[in-house]
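REQUEST
  id: r-88c1
  op: predict_structure
  target: ADP-ribosylglycohydrolase family protein
  payload:
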Amino acid sequence: MLRLTWVQPEDLLGHELRQAAEDGREPWAIAARWRAAGGPQAPARAGASAHRVSGYLRQLAEDLLDELADLPSGLADDEPTELDAIRRLCAPAYHRTGSPAAAPAGPDRSALEAAWTGRAVGCLLGKPVEKLPLHAIRALARAAGNWPLGDYFTARGVPDHLLEEHPWNRRSASTSLAENIDGMPEDDDLNYPLLNLLLLQRHGRAFGTDDVARLWLDELPAGRTFTAERVAYRNLLSGIEPPHTARHRNPFREWIGALIRADVHGWTNPGDPAAAAEQAYRDAALTHTANGVYAAMFTAAVIAAAATGAHDVHTCLRAGLSVIPPRSRLARAVTHAVRLAETHADFDTVVDELHTTHKAAHWVHAVPNTALIAAALTHADGDFTGSVCRAVSGGWDTDSNGATAGSVAGLLAGRPAALPDRWTAPLKNRLATSVAGFDGTGFDTLAHLTWSLTPREASRP
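RESPONSE
  id: r-88c1
  status: 200
  body:
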């Protein structure tokens, strides 16, 4: 039986009920109707429930999804999705002075290679334990003598009973455990930056959201999309145009998908966090709203600040906060996470408090994951190994969090040689991907392509 993930109406409804409660709507009466009809809850970790429901329940789910979309949000003033409204709430960050020629120097190719490599390392570190709960991640690493986390996960030395109780991610163990790594395997956390290179090559930095949609339809296999991206892709094929693609029956619109697409927007706007955020916004608007969009804008701005090579990680994180609405759930979560990281010497304590604070959120939601990334970077003071290991050891969306932390920390490190060999050697300067023209490409080549898309007046020769 084929149960296509992330699109079944009966599964979407459970996620939309949770999303409605999070964004200030009142879904309780609709939730009661769904329960009274015998409707199931959303799968806790998987993309689809195990069994089909009746035709009646499926139709009811579609009707209730539309009813939920019409409910007003009590958070709309503090969490707008329209760019002009975001700018008004963050006016100082978007009030630019000076000329492009006066912008700080951008990253050279060596720094960009470190950022690309760092993104791959962090992603690869997190791949085997994606979807596992926090206690399982800790148990597997401790059993291998790898806690606090300091190297790639391995099955060597881990008791069989523990591996049976907490199996590795089934898609990743064969390519991502230390004993199996042979180059960077395919992952959406690398596919999307590759697609954004194509986006900028074809349309320049003034691209529109429609350009993102066309590129996806041309270059991105539907089976390589997940959560909000898969729903938006389906909406495009149904004739729904952006930005409605992000809203129509898309309960994942505040999840992490737009964040993982943000790096290239930061790399190509060195020293201009606002421009990076606006560029990330036009990308994110295809699939996300509100805090899902803010996570991408925050990440792009952090990376744009780091790309100058002139700021420490703490300044970069403040730059990220400056471009998103200050009373949004994301801004409050990141601020809280940074404060925890500054307060506690033991990062496990930070993680435990974050998991308690965000216990109601799905493990792929942008708010807790962005908060964890900020906490990891803060606690590690931007150190590469410390940043990626903390981001992954904190659980939730481990490969995405490791990738973003690795990108930022790699960029701050400034050169590939600054990244420890135990992390980089297994990658063999090679990644696999289904994005046409990039399979087998090296990170040095990707760095050159990215550098060529960076404004010349803001780049080193």
